[in-house]
Amino acid sequence: MAHTATDSHGGSSLLGIFDRDTIILLRIPFSFFLLPIYVFALSQTGGIDWYPTIILFIVLHLFIYPGSNAYNSYMDQDEGSIGGLKNPPKATRNLFYASMVMDGIGLALSLLVGWRLVILIAVYIAMSKAYSWHGIRLKKHGITAWLVVVIFQGAYTFMMVNMTAVNDFSMGWFTTPHLLCMAIATLLIGGFYPLTQIYQHEEDSSRGDMTISYRLGIIGTFVFTATFFLSGNAIGWYYFTNYYTSDHFLIFNICLLPVTGYFLYWFIITLKDKSKADFAHSARMTLLSSSFMIACFSVLFYLNHGGGSF
């Protein structure tokens, strides 16, 4: 495996590798932004086995996602802003070791649920590494990289969480409602993800990473995002009106109104001044969309688990 950084801190023990800069670059709080699909997956269950569900929450949000963040930062050696950090510290060799430790703990904890979850987590880790590792570097290939991210953070995560919550890892799980939910999750992530890259065009291209946002351009990224959000909304309408009620679809749209409003505002000011496609606006968009999607799916969870009607 190719490595590009040297260890400037010299951590010689397991605890030693988790120095201040390494902990910052794990970006554990950033896991909040990956929580919506987890909540969505739980909201679309008839009943929940809470023990494996809580274990999976810990595995994903405290270990696998931070481990992925660490590995990506180590391979990228970012000098500019990245998701969740305006001024990231330099990535050292400690960060690489920390990512391996986080992945190992995540896999070990998955054993508490069973070997099927271990396999699902291992596949997720492998794709995350392939995305960043210089030996494969899917990140260099805009469309391929985008597909990997949106499928694994969208459809795959929904599948993994929902399967774990209902303790069903069989092929029988793949019903039409579940496939529709996987499509919704993928379209939401698919539209949102390019916005997280919109301020990194110069740094990404300097590394040879032709991200989908770079290929689309600033205005193209906004149009692309709008198209995917509308597509997700259309499938959401079909899903909610056929398997629940129109009220569920109404909740879905009401909760996302502030997100839509901010997106349009950001798009309009960027049309006038492309410098507005910056870290600050992207960070606000990320926080707003994640917060309101979590709120939306939490309400649906409440309704779908005996909380009454809208």
Concise description?
It is built from 11 helices and 1 strand. By secondary structure, it is mainly α.
Describe this structure in words.
The chain is an all-alpha fold and 310 residues long. It has one domain (20-304): Farnesyl Diphosphate Synthase (Orthogonal Bundle), CATH 1.10.600. Helices cover 68% and strands 1% of the residues. The chain contains 11 helices and 1 strand; from the N terminus they run ααααααααβααα. Helix 5 (115-132) packs antiparallel against helix 6 and helix 6 packs parallel to helix 9. The model is unreliable at 1-12 (pLDDT under 50).
Low-confidence stretches: 1-12
CATH classification class: Mainly Alpha
CATH arch. level architecture:
Orthogonal Bundle
What is the string of helix and strand elements? HHHHHHHHEHHH
In CATH, the topology is named: Farnesyl Diphosphate Synthase
Structural class: mainly alpha
Alpha plus pi helix count: 11
Question: Which features would summarize this protein structure in a list?
Answer:
single chain; 310 residues; mainly alpha; Farnesyl Diphosphate Synthase; 11 helices; globular; disordered N terminus
Secondary-structure map:
Blueprint: H1 20-26, H2 35-43, H3 50-76, H4 93-110, H5 115-132, H6 142-166, H7 176-192, H8 201-206, E1 210-211, H9 212-243, H10 246-272, H11 279-304
